[in-house]
Input
Amino acid sequence: MRLASLFFALGVLLLQAQPRLPGWPWGLLLLLSGAGVLAAAWQTRGAEARRRALGLTALATLLAVLGFSWAGWRADDALSRQLAAADEGRDFVVTGIVTRMPQAMSWGVRFELEVEQMQGAGLLGKEPGPAVMPRRLSLGWWEARRADSLAGRDARSTPELHSGERWRMTVRLKRPHGLRNPGGFDAEAWMVERGIDASGAVRLVPVRLSAFVARPDTIIERLREMARDRFLAVLPRPDYPWGGILAALAVGDQQAVDSGQWRVFARTGTTHLMSISGLHVTLVAGLVAALAGALWRRHPRAPLLLATPRAAALAGMVAALVYTLLAGAGVPALRTLIMVAVAGLAVVCGRATRVSRVLAAALVAVLVLDPWAVLVPGFWLSYGAVGALLYVGGGRVELARDEEGGTTRTWRGRMRLALARFGLAQWTATLATLPLVLFFFQQFSLVSPLANAVAIPVISFVVTPLALLAALLPVDSLLWLAHAVLSPLMSLLVWLADLPLAVWSPPAPPIWSMALAVAGLLLLLAPRGLPGRLAGALLLLPLVTWPVPRPGAGEAWVTVLDVGQGLAVVVRTAGHVLAYDTGPAWGETDAGERVVAPYLRTLGVGRLDALVVTHSDRDHSGGALSVLQAFPTAWLVDTLPEAHPAHAFGVPRDLCEHGLAWEWDGVRFTVLHPPREAVAPGIKPNRQSCVMTVDAAGRRLLLAADLEIPDEAAVLRRGGPELRADVLVAPHHGGASASSPAFVGAVRPDQVVFSAGYRNRFSHPRPEVVERYREIGSTVWRTDQDGAVTFRLGVDGVSGSSERQDRPRYWAARQEMSGMPR
Output
């Protein structure tokens, strides 16, 4: 069972790594071939050992092919439901049911709608419907819309809708799309996993058709929503800053935790406690089973009908199921639910089973239900930690000897044993998940052992039970008590998070170093006395010391990040790193936190040598505060107003003005615009755009920010023939107000990149502007279609590559520019 589950999981993982989905004739052929090999092995005559080896090999192959085929079938089914490309940008009248808790945002509300009917929004309903009807939509409903005002409603009223309601609304849709950056979150994979077939926005005032549609899933979601809303009403901010954390612990609403609190958890290594983890589900199941067993045992006839251990096991299984459903059924909770169910059924049926077999059964069950779980870091962290604990628990005999020797007969002995076990579990889980944490997040909390030693018992044994009781019982004092217990713990975590050396951020390790690290961990966590056990530490060295590639002297590597409708560029020389703009703000978060900072961590960047903020427009400066908060910055160059919050960080600052220049590692940076007189109150921010060149190894990059045609002419007058560039980051995202024929002819870039959002409302880049560059022979790159684009300026010339080309995945294949002329 254990070996079978691993090979099934391997097949699922191989499918998720494919750049294209394989055709079904090939998948069927593979499956039949594996079955044929297994049958041939079964009929093989000769030595028993050879027959057994061949049989195991054939079985492993068949299981891997089965996992590959199952995941492929599920993926093909999911992609077949997605909105057709021809229907993007069209308006549809949709009738459907709100299936998950709506999430309130600063701009309105985000929710998921299960589609029942869908038709074109033309007059008299004559416009054709979609080519493919999506089943589930992710929609945004903005607070202020012109249609609301025309309908005589308050244009600033917050949209109000609830899970389980049936609505009819007019929406404009687009296919699932997300930003693609090295080290960034893959929203497209997340949407495929969630079954979201299109996203979009509500266009007109919707009509509520039913207040509640009673189904098992809607009943659960409505209960979750009611509990979440009560938590936030009883514990309003700012008087109760940690109320959202209690909502996350009780009903799994992680949106209730703000970005500042997530930063504290990330820096202290306690993020796992904010999800409904296996520990929480096990705790609930164990408490309910113990209580049910005690009550069942007291009844005179109940044990005669059903043995007490079986009754307790059934009660624990039901409790685990209810808690997992109320918590949103995330991967860690689902894995634990299946483990509790398998173990409980073993008790009910009177059969003994090993924990490792239970874990193997849970692995297969999770992947059958959700083949995309292997794409989620939580999947690997959850199974990695549990597997390591099982591995260590099977080999550690010292604690068992203590128990056998009688040292646990006194309360001091029991306390010492409990602390030893807790410390061993902490050490094992921390060490076992270290490679995974570095691989997925490129940072490791050095204060996590201390933080978890305090946080795990407080949250798991005090705060979470109180939050669950408060969700079940309408007693506000339970919430106030839980918040009072949580407050000193959060104060400690905030203090730990603010320590200068709280986090260690090495560069992203290569994949082969993960295999060595796993082998090293197996040695380090082996029982004492094993020869060569400490040599496992040597196998961990590549994971933590492998150097990130760097430009040579005089060279520059430039990455234009995919931040949607905005701009963020990272320039690296041999020994320095510069960030040029930080992308837009998106309500509760921004591109600095979600894109720029994760990318810099993949490079192992611990500090920025310079941050250039070209002007105050939010699509260029929206992430500046997050970047300044995440990385010590040596120098700030900007045209921001004096009162801008970025200046409160105390970073040495220079005005970005024409004539400013410096040199790093043989690479020269020169500012071409604006003149000092243009940086004044009342002047349009675009006219203050900080335009600069990067000259490396005889090659030139021109960063044009939001330069517009009048100022392009001024730059041309000042620069003349010196403006010729090999690579151009196109001004103003390719809008019609920039890239005049004179400017394009003077710069004549060999390669031009447009940083723009997918199907943005400005239609950037404009087709006529793109054609203008193509006419002079420029290679065109677009972040909305290519993802992040990287250029290397060196002695061998200029080379360009993109994230979508370098790391293609089947769920994103439709976004690539394979058929688009360069």
Q: What stands out?
A: Residues 48-80 form the longest helix (33 residues).
